[in-house]
Amino acid sequence: MLAAARYAYLWGHPEKGVAYLKPIAEAYFQLGIADDHFVYVRGLPFFDQTWSHLVAFAWMQASYDTTDEFLSRSKSKLSDYDFDRLGRFYEAHKRSNYSEYAANLAKDLEARDARFPSGYQRVQLAALNAVDGVDPDGAVAVLQSIELAQNDFPWLRDVILLHTARCHWKAGRPDEEAVERARFLDRQKLLFEPDHAFGFAVLDYQEELRPIYQSTRGEQGGAGNGAPRRA
Prior knowledge:
By secondary structure, the chain is mostly helical. It has helices at residues 2-10, 14-31, 36-40, 47-61, 65-77, 83-95, 99-111, 119-132, 136-145, 156-170, 174-187, 194-199, 203-217. It is globular and about 50 Å long.
């Protein structure tokens, strides 16, 4: 169902994406617990993954009524989950202002045990600061200075590529953008999944890239014509 939802995202059908995700969302309420390990061993995606897909589709539809209601219901019906953190990021996304969330993330990173991987959080922090910042050169320098460990997700390098392209796009530098965009598309031909695009605040730029994906696939236009691989 997540693969079908991703395909709906790629072809610009948010209503179909939400329909694919509804059975998963309802399954959490049947369990009553949203803890990652608990839902994973029962064959469900992590709650945050499903939630992030839903927010991406809400953004595409320019209405957060459904996700507002879903979050309120989740807080009252589900246990064992950090809904405060999830809610803070959600509100930052809706305001298009991540400064407060990024400041707290920076503090968390300072206190983080160095024995555990932190690449995801460091890339996310740089990405959120790039979105909020007014210095594209500085943002690109920070993004490209991040060193990832062997136990970090390898696709985080592609997030850095994508946000570098976004920085050039926002700064009106088409030549520089084209170079980084081509490098990203060579590595992520199906773009990033909606949850990654939401989590790294790059939904707006992937909206610019979706027509490129569609042009390589011809006039298909509907979800369900085959499941894409996970990036």
